[in-house]
Amino acid sequence: MSEALNDLWQNMGKRYQSHPWHGINIGKEAPEVVMSFIEMTPHDSVKYEIDKQSGFLKVDRPQKFSNIVPALYGFLPQTYCAEEVADYCMMKSSRKGIVGDGDPLDILVLTERNIAHGNIIIPAIPIGGIRMIDDGEADDKIIAVLKGDETYDWNSLSDCPSSIINRIRHYFLTYKTIPGESLNRVEIAAIYGREEALEVIRRSQHDYENHYGGIEDKMQRATIDVIQRHK
User: Under a CB-based contact definition with an 8 Å cutoff, are residues 63 and 47 in contact?
Assistant: First the structure.
């Protein structure tokens, strides 16, 4: 890429907001420390999620029941749950026919600090995760702590009180269940530790690269093509 094009891309990043999923970097220290985009907080009575096309935060639905997300909740940029994440889920759960859910990897970030709104980026340290299977799809939830939080200075899931893990389990087992309905599509196959969480993150990065890698190169080629056409 020419020096002029390099300057163009750098200056575009100063002028325009990046897409939270594709334009934000997960961080040089990933998977040990990850930049996380937060969509929801325990204060929210509405379920927010990223609009994949525009990158804006949108209202998915009002929370129907009394379920409250038990931690800061969002996703890891430049990750994707597809073949490698699904293969790992099947290997660990001895299940067959699992596919990735086709979304960026979800993350819950625990912190003692009162963060009252989403649509922010925060650094987090993964300490474990939930192997969740939602209607036949691998839908892992990474559990992490806010980097620098002196109260939640935990290095592994064993440092985390069981009451917090139970709260997280209960939320995901019930947040889609309609009162009086016996069918539950959501299954928690396992609660796993730090090393498995890091492996899930790595695999989600590989899945992203396999499905969305080379975006910058594609944009650069398109820019060169436009410039040449207008010479």
Answer: yes
Determine contact, residues 18/49, Cβ cutoff 8 Å.
Answer: no
61 burial via Cβ count (<10 Å: 0-12, 13-18, 19+): exposed
Question: What is the β-pairing status of strands 99-100 and 46-50?
Answer: unpaired
Structure tokens at 137: 């799809």
pLDDT digits (tens, 9 = 90+) for 33-42: 999 999 999 9
CA dist., res. 150 & res. 166, Å (int): 23
CA distance 152 to 147: 9
Residues 12-33 have a mean pLDDT of: 89
DSSP letters along 156-194, please?
SGGGS-HHHHHHHHHHHHHTTPPTT-----EEEEEEE-H
Which candidate, 207, 191, 221, 223, places its Cα nearest to that of 26?
207
What value does the CA radius of gyration of the chain take, rounded to a whole number of Å?
A: 19
Q: Which domains does the chain have, with CATH numbers?
A: 3-229 (3.90.80.10)
pTM exceeds cut of 0.85: yes
Phi/psi of residue 78, nearest 5 degrees: 55, 40
| Cα distance between residue 172 and residue 151, in whole Å | 25
